[in-house]
């Protein structure tokens, strides 16, 4: 499909600087822009590319003022990144929609399936499963007994959802994710470990996205809960009885130990590790590779291992760089003290 700058600006409520009739039929990164494509500038680190990009149209923030000549047509918008997301969603919605149930699926007679679903080949739908409207279940998905899946949810290939779990509306679960595997519960007994039955479930509320190969364990009792609007990246481990708050986002390889509660609107960097049985407040920002051994108050930014306030960590990092110099200074002072002692003895 092809769109003019004017059509795009009208859709995004933007202001055109340049040729309003130039047309594009694809998207590109700003540093790899080609004629006939649209790109965007949101991160100042990429500003220099806007003067050389071959893209025909560039989305920019309204406060952007060029310092050199730009060949591309600009469309100024309130938030270039957000507007790009709108365009990407528009392109994605234009793809042919998958519908129907493949003949090579297994669906238990007791399952309740809406008329508008898509279920791909070799998917397995167990007893008493309830599947809502417009749900898409891609090939080789396994859905255990008594699972409920809300309207408009997408389960990509190879997703596994164990028995009794609840998946909300408008969720996206990517390939290889496992929802509801047993929590890591074992009791020491006579020099060995005895498995503790994990009889709870997992509840995924509405509008949650879960990345590829992420695992969310079922609760020992009660529920492991991912609240509305949370976004989890690939390769994340969420242990039993954890609760993740509304609109919290987590980057890849985060590990959350059992019974930890994470508040709403938190931002968690990659490879962060949470100890078990702690509480993280709302609107907490946590830098990548931090270790969180204790409770964290709301409206805090922390970094490091163990994590400390971000500014304190930055000051410590500066001091660490100066340690070799400080070490030499201390050695020099020690020598001077020894020399003074010898003089005093004489």
TrEMBL record:
Swiss-Prot/TrEMBL catalytic activity: a UDP-3-O-[(3R)-3-hydroxyacyl]-alpha-D-glucosamine + a (3R)-hydroxyacyl-[ACP] = a UDP-2-N,3-O-bis[(3R)-3-hydroxyacyl]-alpha-D-glucosamine + holo-[ACP] + H(+)
All copies of domain UDP-3-O-[3-hydroxymyristoyl] glucosamine N-acyltransferase non-repeat region, residue ranges: 22-90
CC annotations in GO: membrane
Pathway: Bacterial outer membrane biogenesis; LPS lipid A biosynthesis
Classification via CDD domains: LbH_LpxD (cd03352)
UniProt record similarity statement: Belongs to the transferase hexapeptide repeat family. LpxD subfamily.
Name used for this protein in its record: UDP-3-O-acylglucosamine N-acyltransferase
Taxonomic classification: Bacteria, Pseudomonadati, Bacteroidota, Bacteroidia, Bacteroidales
The encoding gene: lpxD
